[in-house]
Amino acid sequence: MLSSFFKPIVLILITCLSIISLALTVISEKGAIVYYNDSLIGTIKDNSLSFNATFPGFLKVVKPGYLPFEKEITEDGTVTAQLIFPSYLKINVFPENAEVYINDIKCTTDKVYMMKPGKYTIKVSASGFTTKTIELIINEKEEKTLDISLKRTVTLNIQSSKNISGVLFDGKFINVPTLLEVSPGKHWFILPNNFAEKIQEFNVPAVDNFSITINSQQVYNLQISGEPENAYVKLNDEIYKLPFAGDLVEGTYNVTIYVEGYKEEFRQLNLKNDTVVNYALEPVELYKFNFSEEGYKVEFDGFQVDRLVRRTYFTTIKDTDGNIIWCGFSDGNLQNMPTTISILVNSDYQVTIGNQTYSGPAVLQVQRGQKINLYNRLTGTETITLEKFTVFDTTEKCLVNIYSKTNADVFIDGRYIGKTPIYLFTTNSGRHELVLRKNGQEIFRTGISIYRGKLNEIRIEK
Questions:
Q1: Alpha-carbon Rg of the chain, whole angstroms?
Q2: How many CB atoms lie within 10 A of CB 432?
Q3: In 3D, which of 315, 317, 319, 316 has the Cα closest to residue 295?
Q4: Is 302 domain-assigned?
Q5: What is the three-state SS of 83-95?
Q6: Most exposed among 238, 316, 327, 392, judged by the fewest C-beta atoms under 10 Å?
């Protein structure tokens, strides 16, 4: 602890040290006047002036005809204050009441400004006119006059990666790219039909010049067809059933064609015009069908075949009178009569086998003599013992399979229901009109009769 005698002495020493001045030397033009912290220090006579200064402080050096030199000083030493000749800028504007900003500082237009050389942003605006912004470089000793007239319209630079004719803009047809004078606000472009974004909207601000870029991506027709017809194609991330025909936005597409039982085919497509792609998938395995039971006819997707690609088929085994003995989905590798009993149910039924419940439409396999619980919302639940192939349906929802030699679009009574083969489609009993179309052309038309209590199989040899 300091004694009471020494405390005043320490405080005096600290105060004295805090006000000790250090030497600062300023080098500049002869005759320049030096200010420090807004106090006049003196005039430079021999190119330099030294004086005691406290820090930090603010140094200002001025001389008539030169721009002032200003700098904050944080330590002692020597400062070279280089004085430069000024530049001059005068701005004339129309309309006269326009507001002028130089580097975001509001200025008036009725005087000449003394400027340091450098880069400046001049912004002029007035009510009812578009705002003009000018980037300006002023050189040393330069005298510059700006005449700025504001417009009520915007110079719109419409850019496009392609030359496009017949673009509808503000009720007039134009060609792009182009330059137009337009009013500020929203504007619409309507492009020809073969462009991806036919209607495009832009908001044009109230500025002197503005640029927009039209989306000039076009659409082109892509058609993909080949063998087998029931394949699928993946175009980037979208999957379609083949054959495919549609309009797509130009660009690069990863095309993968695949189907069960065949080797996958991949190609990269640069779509830049209408394009047709043909494919022929190679089977993974092609084998001869050999069924050991005599007196039966086996059909795969409605047809008898000798050689098969290993994939999933709707398979029916029929007796010599054409009655279905068994049906279900198989890979075609049937050699013996299945030991299960097939049952078909429409969407009005639920079937419980053991602890599993199935909703129709469905084809199910059970053991001969097995009991099932059959539920219908109108008749309730009943327990049934199965001994042979059975169909559970209603007059309003009879089960129908439709097969054809080639894939075709199917219409029943004028309504599109899908592509062949079609499994377990439901419609009411009675007469119907069946039409098949391929590539938009009708290839088959006939009347068909649909019955309750059976699997109605429609087979078209086309």
A1: 45
A2: 17
A3: 319
A4: no
A5: CCCCEEEEEEEEC
A6: 238
Nearest CA to 359 among 396, 392, 331?
392
- Quick one: tokens of 340? 């299960």
Torsion sign over Cα 354, 355, 360, 364: negative
Amino acid letter, 100: V
Decide if 421 contacts 403 (C-beta within 8 A): yes
Residue with tokens 């098969």: 308
pTM: 0.60
Query: Are 236 and 207 in a shared domain?
Result: no
What are the average pLDDT values for consecutive 10-residue runs of the chain, which has 462 residues?
44 42 88 94 92 93 91 92 90 90 87 88 92 91 89 95 93 94 94 93 94 95 92 95 92 96 95 95 89 91 90 93 94 88 95 92 93 91 92 96 92 95 96 93 95 96 88
- Check which CATH number belongs to the domain holding 93 and give it: 2.60.40.1120
Query: Which residues span the domain enclosing 409?
Result: 398-460
User: What burial class does residue 316 get, using C-beta atoms within 10 Å of its C-beta: 0-12 exposed, 13-18 middle, 19+ buried?
Assistant: buried
Type of residue at 231: A
